[in-house]
Specification:
alpha+beta, 4-stranded antiparallel sheet
Amino acid sequence: MTSTTVDTKESFADLFPFNHLPQTSVEHLLKKSQFMRYRIGQAILIPETMPEYISILCQGKARLLGYDKRTEKPVTLQLFQPGEVLGWVSNIRNIACETVIASTEVVCLNLPIADFLTLVKQNSAFRRALHNHAA
């Protein structure tokens, strides 16, 4: 995997849904975030467990999976690229519903869910953006 230098603050503030937050909230989230590496095939999100983090895909690719009940096999619903935000759907719906697997070696910037949910409660523009976004 090649390594890249990214202005995290600038990139993060431009991503949905964080582009609906004031700069001070973005800076607060970044202070509490941490990078995590996932191996090929490793689960980033599983439907049996509520995500502990909101994950921003920084490097690599990951697949959103669904299961075909007829064949009982996983089906790729979406291929995620860097810049995608994972885990927010389960937390907004308040039910673990996402299965995301690393397709390549992946690096995510993980934000604690408690801080994310606090911002959802406190910031009406942020909350509206999440609730109005189809997922």
